[in-house]
What does this fold into?
Amino acid sequence: MARAEPPAATFERRVLRSAAEHHYLRVRLELPDGGARPSAAQFKQLVVSALRELHGEVGAALPVDVLTYEEKTLSAILRVISSGLVKLWSALTLLGFYQNRRCAFRVLQTSPFLLALSGNSRELVLD
It folds into this structure.
């Protein structure tokens, strides 16, 4: 009796797109030489100018909201429509100067859920 071989395993790729309308980013602006710290309005203008520099006027029209901004740590939570996440992230990453001084944006966290940015499990201290 000949044994029947089992059918070959089939591979099916499934890609799930997030249905979330917005994405949230926790970012920090690094100014290595110190100097003047931007206010909340100047920070928002810096984000818009980064978008304009890389993606032109279409990029500058991308709706980005600064939900929170801490001037002493230069960190903020930004909200952007999901379709503009890559444009915003790339513009922030490639920005190199603020008021003719070197600077860098660091994207610390990103999530389609604002609640996910409320804490960082890597910094969690259990008693």
Observations:
- The mean pLDDT is 88.
- The chain has two helices and six strands.
- Strands lie at 22-30, 64-70, 75-81, 97-98, 101-102, 104-111.
